[in-house]
Specification:
It is a single chain. It is built from four helices and 21 strands. Among the domains are: 80 residues, Immunoglobulin-like; 66 residues, no CATH class. The protein is 23% helix and 28% strand. The C terminus is likely disordered. A hairpin with a 5-residue loop joins strand 8 and strand 9. It is of the alpha+beta class. The strands form six sheets. Strands 2-9-8-4-5 form a five-stranded mixed sheet, with no helix packed on it. Strands 13, 14, 16, 17 and 18 form a five-stranded antiparallel sheet that branches. A four-stranded antiparallel sheet has the order 1-3-7-6, with no helix packed on it. One of its GO terms (cellular component) is external side of plasma membrane. One of its GO terms (biological process) is immune response. Keywords: Disulfide bond, Signal. It comes from Salarias fasciatus (Jewelled blenny).
């Protein structure tokens, strides 16, 4: 019983832990872009307190902001001067090693300024092509390797974007170079809830609870553990009851001894013999557990004592009976 309570408590603990697990923490980049000119300053922040900024570059496999490439401040990290070797994958990570969503950040002499986060359908998106070298040339823009236009100002605006606007964009300056490709994502706008009417009043109550796959696995595991414990407890109870019943039957073994009408002299022949209860001790010609006929013809009585006790009792009765013989003169 105590073991089952402990396991139920553990299941409850696992369920509470799974419901409080944090979601993947995002990384906020300021300014909000993924490409930066060489020499620019960047501020990186984690959405959750206690998380730190990590990165992976070509020069270094994996390192945190505290390793010297940035200036840490709580859950934030600032880079005062971006170099080309600062290009890489950046993400947030907790003390336990959980990693959040990652962002590709590049630093080059020619960069494409584009939104880091997905844009909604119907919005306008402005792309900017910049270079650290002085240039008066027009910037050319490409989508998925296909030329889409040239702008003398270095900026191109995409009007009322749709899902078809998703893809890899880059820009270039003739004689200077081109920017690394940058992916632009387009998301669907949030659905608007229909206003409540008189026929369909708005529902009240707590908001629906979303269950993740981990929480579902933990709950199913808890249900299986509790069900198994209940089944095992029931089987053990039935088994113990059957063993106890068999034990009581084995303890109260019976013996057969002659009734009051039998010849007392014949009882001594079977004194101390225990008769097997698997045989019927009633009637004549039945055999005892030792293979002998205890007494024939007369009825038998079951008792929980040995035949020795019966013989002693009969002997006592014979000794107390009065005798008709006179004493010899």
């Amino acid at each position: 019983m105590e073991g089952r309570r402990v396991l139920q408590l553990l299941c409850l603990t696992f369920t509470l832990i799974s419901t409080t697990l944090p979601s993947l923490q995002g990384l906020t980049v300021s300014p909000s872009r993924s490409q930066f000119l060489q020499g620019a300053s960047v501020s990186l922040s984690c959405e959750e307190d206690g998380w730190t900024v990590w990165r992976k570059t070509k020069r270094r496999e994996r390192s945190s902001c505290e390793d010297g490439w940035g200036k840490p401040a709580g859950s934030s990290c600032s880079i005062s001067y971006m170099f080309t070797w600062d290009s890489g994958v950046y993400w947030c990570e907790s003390r336990e090693g959980a990693a959040g969503s990652s962002i590709n950040i590049t630093s080059d002499t020619v960069v494409l300024q584009s939104p880091v986060l997905p844009v909604m359908e119907g919005q306008d998106v402005t792309l900017g092509c910049r270079t650290s070298a002085p240039s008066t040339l027009s910037a050319s823009f490409f989508k998925d390797g296909v030329f889409i236009g040239t702008e003398s100002t270095g900026h191109m605006t995409l009007r009322h974007v749709s899902r078809s606007a998703e893809g890899l964009y880059r820009c270039s300056f003739r004689g200077v170079g081109e920017s690394p490709p940058s992916w632009i994502s387009v998301s669907a706008p949030p659905t608007k809830a229909a206003p409540p009417t008189e026929e369909t009043p708005p529902r009240s109550g707590a908001p629906p609870i979303s269950i993740t796959s981990l929480q579902l696995v933990v709950r199913v595991f808890c249900y299986l553990v509790v069900f198994s414990l209940n089944s095992i407890s029931t089987l053990l109870t039935v088994s113990l009851y059957q063993d106890r019943t068999k034990g009581e039957e084995a303890v109260f073994e019976s013996v057969c001894f002659a009734g009051d009408g039998a010849d007392p002299s014949s009882r001594g022949q079977h004194a101390g013999q225990v008769v097997d209860i698997s045989h019927d001790c009633l009637g004549s010609g039945r055999t005892s557990g030792v293979g002998d006929s205890v007494l024939g013809g007369g009825g038998f009585t079951f008792s929980a004592v040995l035949l020795t006790s019966a013989i002693n009792q009969q002997t006592h009765q014979l000794n107390t009976q009065p005798t008709n013989e006179r004493p010899a003169h």
